[in-house]
Design brief:
Strand order of the largest sheet: 1-3-4-5-6-7-8-9
CATH topology: Lipocalin
Helix content: 10-25%
Number of domains: 1
Mean pLDDT: 85
Distance between the termini: 69 Å
Strand content: 35-45%
Order of helices and strands: HHEEEEEEEEE
CATH class: Mainly Beta
Oligomer: single chain
Shape: globular
């Protein structure tokens, strides 16, 4: 009888320990789109800008992109240049994808958030396949650097 009780206690202990192990391993799943959106929650200064093959000056202008949730504001100094939003982040795709939503319409784009850099390419004539904005592509390529607080 004692052996049966010991075996039951051993089995109960093993079950309890395996349950504890499972509960430790079963951390809540993190949504990659929310993770990327969280990485964007900052102010970013424009360091490179190419539109349909034409490089736009950035050195003499201080253009800043600020995210709040999925809403964004682009300013040159105190002047608001554009207010827009991003949606449908696809962080599992290569390259990562998003939709850029403005008053003018919704445009497909690709993006990369790497450390203090945010790179985006928006296609005004279709989804860009690569981070490029060559002449005739109707793409806009921007590179932003995170503003340190």
């Amino acid at each position: 009888m004692w052996r049966s009780v010991q075996r039951l206690m051993l089995v109960a202990t093993m079950v309890a320990l395996s349950g504890a192990t499972l509960s430790l391993a079963a951390e809540p799943k993190v949504d990659p789109a929310k993770q990327d959106l969280e990485k964007l929650q900052a102010s970013w200064v424009l360091v490179y800008w190419l539109v349909d093959g034409e490089e736009k000056p950035t050195a003499d202008k201080k253009i800043v992109l600020s995210f709040k949730g999925n809403k964004l504001t682009i300013r040159e100094g105190d002047k608001v240049i554009e207010e827009a939003s991003i949606k449908d982040l696809g962080p599992g795709k290569q390259p990562k994808t998003f939709e850029y939503v403005t008053e003018r319409g919704t445009y497909p784009g690709i993006y990369l958030v790497e450390g203090d850099l945010f790179i985006a390419c928006v296609g005004y004539g279709g989804k860009p396949a690569t981070f490029s904005a060559e002449e005739g592509s109707k793409n806009e390529l921007v590179v932003y650097k995170r503003v340190k607080k």
